Automatic annotation (TrEMBL):
It comes from Geodermatophilus dictyosporus. NCBIfam families: lspA. Pathway: Protein modification; lipoprotein biosynthesis (signal peptide cleavage). It comes from the Bacteria. GO terms for cellular component: plasma membrane. This protein specifically catalyzes the removal of signal peptides from prolipoproteins. This is Lipoprotein signal peptidase.
Length: 231
């Protein structure tokens, strides 16, 4: 007995201590760990949609306000400092500042249809403001903001300047390359904003970018995929 007691090595277990071993839970039927099929992503609750893009209404209106204020300020400065018909040569003759009145559209186009273009400007402004509620594209917000600011800027002249209500002449003052619009029609800041916004809008339309920021082709593909999934 003494020899057997001397063979034992290591610390003796404490009294009342019971050694346990971790037990693995029994696998259940359909356990992903034992299934040959790949794990599926969690199901999306029915009735849920993709996250809504943030409207760009504030950006559109802010940009339109900046264009409008800049246009009104430059016109008031020109009327106060430059006589009608006078030419101020700047940038070495690249630009001439003058004061002219335009009763047509942008860049003195179709003069004599002042009332028509005034009504068109009102319609354009109303349509853009109504569209701004569902506008989520940054590019379209910039394009429509430029057009809205320019349209309202020229509309103010048509309403409040001589010769009368809805027939007022728009103040144009920029002539490039030569005085008096000999090379290119005389224009103002509002005209430039309208043209730049129109060009940007045309580029966005050609690229298929919608007002909500999505692409037209992607939307059609998504609809096709949904139809195939339903079938």
């Amino acid at each position: 007995m003494a020899a057997a007691a001397s063979v034992r090595t290591g610390p003796r277990p404490r009294r009342g201590y019971r050694r346990t071993t971790p037990q693995c839970p029994h696998p259940r039927a359909g356990d992903p760990a034992l299934s040959d099929e790949p794990a599926q992503p969690p199901a999306v609750p029915e009735g849920t949609t993709a996250p809504v893009r943030r409207p760009r209404t504030r950006l559109l209106l802010t940009l339109a306000a900046v264009v409008l204020l800049a246009d009104l300020a430059t016109k008031l400065l020109v009327v106060a400092t430059i006589e009608p018909g006078a030419d101020v040569r700047v940038l070495g003759g690249l630009v001439y500042l003058t004061q002219a009145r335009n009763t047509g559209a942008a860049f003195s186009f179709a003069e004599g249809f002042t009332v028509v273009f005034t009504l068109v400007a009102v319609v354009v402004a109303v349509v853009i403001v109504r569209t701004a509620r569902r506008l989520a594209s940054l590019g379209w917000a910039v394009a429509l903001g430029l057009v809205l600011g320019g349209a309202v800027g020229n509309l103010v002249d048509r309403v409040f300047r001589d010769p009368g209500f809805l027939r007022g002449g728009v103040v144009d003052f920029v002539s490039v390359f030569a005085p008096d619009g000999e090379v290119y029609p005389i224009f103002n800041l509002a005209d430039s904003a309208i043209v730049c916004g129109g060009v940007l809008g045309a580029v966005l339309a050609l690229r298929g970018i919608e007002f909500d920021g999505t692409r037209g082709g992607d939307r059609g593909t998504d609809r096709g995929d949904d139809a195939v999934a339903r079938d």
